[in-house]
Specification:
The chain is an alpha+beta fold and 312 residues long. It has one domain: TATA-Binding Protein (2-Layer Sandwich). It has ten helices and twelve strands. Strands 1-9-10-11-12-8 form a six-stranded antiparallel β-sheet. Helix 1 packs across helix 5 and helix 6 packs antiparallel against helix 10. The chain is globular.
């Protein structure tokens, strides 16, 4: 897989029939006692990679928290970007929105003074629903099973714990989408021009790109010629995750956000989409007004940025 990680400092799984002890919530949290500090984000990454996961980012967020805000609520707070090639191969043809959570994300955290370490990530039914797949899809069940097995190996005394709140009801669409056509006869040049403009807007609006994945590279390597291109940006706004993580460290299930951009073979329409902040707000039952304001500002900026860039 050709994956370009751009330098940064920063930006499920209730498995049906497989993890009966895991709570029913869009976010799953796996917790282990860690008084000796031997379980670390680096060690968890190593176990995931040994299990066949691609770990494309494992960012220590305490560094930018202290740099930008002069404080942190955590002894450990990492945001991880992960995916599996076999999952993408199995889902990309029938579920083109797979890029909403391929790569997917997780937070690894220990609050100040705590003697435990937690890993939070999106539950399998929630992941399936967002990408438009049935909850009993074999590839999704297998993904959750393998992640569960890897976490239990990395954190052998760990267990799933319920979150102390219920999700909010919401009628909002949890995915923001836009479609447009690239100008000119050469889509490759037009795509490069668009992405240069888009990435410039990211920087201008203080979004950070944690990773960039060319999913179509692996698809074509396996003779899956369904797309002209399929790119996924992993994007984070440090101010957003800082404010939300104070009360909801499990927010790493949604950050960095994956924004896909693809064009199918034989078509001229480019599709872009990302899981929006309304999903954060509903799933995490966010009440803090500053966190809500920060989320909504980021949503507005990102929507404007995509729409403006796509019209150039």
């Amino acid at each position: 897989m050709r994956l370009i990680i751009k330098a940064l400092m920063l930006s499920t799984f209730f498995v049906l029939g497989a993890v009966a002890s895991e709570p029913v919530h869009d976010v799953s949290v796996f917790v282990s006692e860690n008084s000796d500090g031997k379980i670390t984000p680096t060690q968890i990454q190593k176990v995931l990679e040994e299990a066949g996961f691609m770990v494309e980012a494992n960012n220590n967020m305490n560094a930018p928290y202290k740099r930008d805000f002069n404080e942190t609520s955590f002894d450990v707070y990492n945001l991880m970007v992960i995916w599996r090639k076999d999952t993408v191969m199995a889902l990309a043809k029938d579920f083109p929105e797979v890029g909403l959570y391929a790569p997917m994300t997780a937070s690894i955290y220990t609050k100040k003074g705590d003697k435990s370490i937690s890993v939070a990530y999106l539950s399998m039914p929630a992941l399936a629903k967002i990408i438009g797949a049935p909850a009993d899809n074999p590839a999704i069940i297998d993904l959750g099973k393998k992640l569960n097995e890897a976490l239990k190996k990395a954190m052998p005394n760990g267990k799933y714990v319920p979150l102390n709140y219920k999700m909010q009801e919401s009628k909002k669409d949890f995915v923001t989408r836009v479609s447009f056509e690239l100008e000119g006869d050469d889509w490759e040049d037009a795509k490069d021009d668009f992405q240069m403009a888009f990435e410039s807007e990211l920087a201008t609006n203080k979004f950070v790109m944690a990773a960039f994945a060319d999913l179509n590279y692996d698809l074509e390597e396996n003779d899956k010629e369904w797309y002209d291109f399929y790119d996924v940006y992993s994007i984070c706004k440090i101010e957003v995750i800082y404010e939300v993580s104070k009360n909801h460290p499990e927010a790493g299930a949604f950050a960095p956000c994956s924004a896909y951009m693809y064009q199918k073979k034989g078509e001229k329409t480019v599709h872009m989409a990302f899981p929006n902040v309304y999903k954060w707000m509903a799933a995490l039952n966010i009440k803090d007004q500053k966190a809500l304001d920060t989320l909504l500002d980021a949503q507005k900026r990102f929507e404007t940025m995509i729409k403006t860039t796509s019209k150039k």
